From TrEMBL:
<dbReference type="GO" id="GO:0005886">
    <property type="term" value="C:plasma membrane"/>
</dbReference>
<dbReference type="GO" id="GO:0071482">
    <property type="term" value="P:cellular response to light stimulus"/>
</dbReference>
<dbReference type="InterPro" id="IPR000276">
    <property type="entry name" value="GPCR_Rhodpsn"/>
</dbReference>
<feature type="transmembrane region" description="Helical">
    <location>
        <begin position="109"/>
        <end position="130"/>
    </location>
</feature>
<keyword id="KW-1133">Transmembrane helix</keyword>
<feature type="transmembrane region" description="Helical">
    <location>
        <begin position="156"/>
        <end position="180"/>
    </location>
</feature>
<dbReference type="Pfam" id="PF00001">
    <property type="entry name" value="7tm_1"/>
</dbReference>
<dbReference type="InterPro" id="IPR050125">
    <property type="entry name" value="GPCR_opsins"/>
</dbReference>
<keyword id="KW-0472">Membrane</keyword>
<dbReference type="GO" id="GO:0007186">
    <property type="term" value="P:G protein-coupled receptor signaling pathway"/>
</dbReference>
<dbReference type="GO" id="GO:0007602">
    <property type="term" value="P:phototransduction"/>
</dbReference>
<feature type="transmembrane region" description="Helical">
    <location>
        <begin position="220"/>
        <end position="243"/>
    </location>
</feature>
<feature type="transmembrane region" description="Helical">
    <location>
        <begin position="33"/>
        <end position="57"/>
    </location>
</feature>
<keyword id="KW-0675">Receptor</keyword>
<dbReference type="GO" id="GO:0008020">
    <property type="term" value="F:G protein-coupled photoreceptor activity"/>
</dbReference>
<dbReference type="InterPro" id="IPR017452">
    <property type="entry name" value="GPCR_Rhodpsn_7TM"/>
</dbReference>
<keyword id="KW-0812">Transmembrane</keyword>
Length: 291
């Protein structure tokens, strides 16, 4: 399972990055978030998935104190960057669609936001190194992660659950709900106004295309966020609620909840293809080459 997930995630997201490299006009501010998500998915696949494979094949023996700290940090980093990026994407989509801040959400601003998410994630994941909790080997997940089972680390568990799960989910739901409400109330009216005369329609053709593109990108990004929440919710419930409450959870449930999180990285490139015809074209070429 993990070999398939790793291969599909790495190949799919490398194709995404190659598409953005090949077509510079795609590198608009909103798409920089997708580039960051693709990089994060590759990090998760090359990091967490391979660490799990090591645990599956060799058991806990390779996980010395140093290796456990490094692998645990990398495992946590990818997840925190992903949630922070999705939350930042939702906020920026809200500002562009609802508040008409498109001119202010420039490439420079988005790059600073992405840099901030990485700095925040590095600081967040460094806490176990600094004495707040610790990274330890989890036999049910075959890799090192923060110690969710130690009652002395309960404050850290609550912190991670709220900061890295609850707040991002609330932001995603709130922002996309406001976007949906705004589009439902205004999109048809804007397009009808633009179509009032053929002259106006020709004059506003770029505006119409821009509106449709923004709505399309927002829809796909919303689906990406929903998929992410579906993939992460079972794991969050098991790790942050059931296990700390001493509920007997099967090791298979814990393992497959972890698999579900990693599945997210394999599915994202498929959703990106719904936005970009150029990406679909490269996928078709790759498929023909492999066949």
């Amino acid at each position: 399972i993990y070999l398939i997930l790793t291969a599909s995630t790495v190949v799919g997201n490398i194709v995404v990055l190659y598409t953005f490299y090949l077509y510079p006009y795609l590198r608009v501010p909103s798409n920089l978030f997708i580039i960051n998500l693709a990089i994060t998915d590759i990090l998760n696949a090359m990091g967490r998935n391979n660490f799990v494979l090591i645990g599956l094949i060799m058991g806990p023996e390779p996980y010395t104190h140093l290796f456990c700290n490094i692998s645990g940090f990398i495992n946590s980093l990818g997840h925190v960057v992903m949630t922070a990026t999705l939350a930042a994407t939702a906020i920026c989509r809200y500002l562009v669609i609802v508040r008409s801040y498109a001119r202010k959400i420039t490439t420079t601003v988005v790059r600073r936001i992405i840099l901030t998410t990485w700095c925040y994630a590095i600081l967040n994941c460094s806490m176990p190194w600094l004495g707040w909790s610790r990274y330890t080997y989890h036999p049910f997940e075959f890799t090192c992660l923060p110690d969710w089972h130690d009652e002395n680390n309960f404050s850290y568990i609550i912190f991670v659950f709220i900061i890295d799960s609850v707040i991002p989910c609330i932001l995603l739901i709130a922002c996309y709900w406001r976007i949906y409400a705004f589009i439902s109330a205004n999109a048809n009216r804007m397009l009808i106004h633009i179509r009032q005369s053929s002259l106006k329609a020709r004059r506003h053709l770029p505006l119409r295309i821009m509106i449709k593109n923004e709505i399309k990108i927002t829809k796909v990004l919303f689906i990406i966020c929903v998929l992410f929440m579906i993939c992460i919710l079972p794991y969050s419930i098991v790790i942050f609620i059931l296990i700390p409450c001493n509920v007997d959870v099967s090791p298979y449930v814990v393992f497959y909840c972890g698999v579900l999180i990693n599945l997210n990285g394999s599915l994202n490139p498929v959703l990106y293809a719904a936005i970009y015809p150029k990406l679909r074209k490269i996928y078709r070429r790759l498929g023909c080459y492999l066949c």
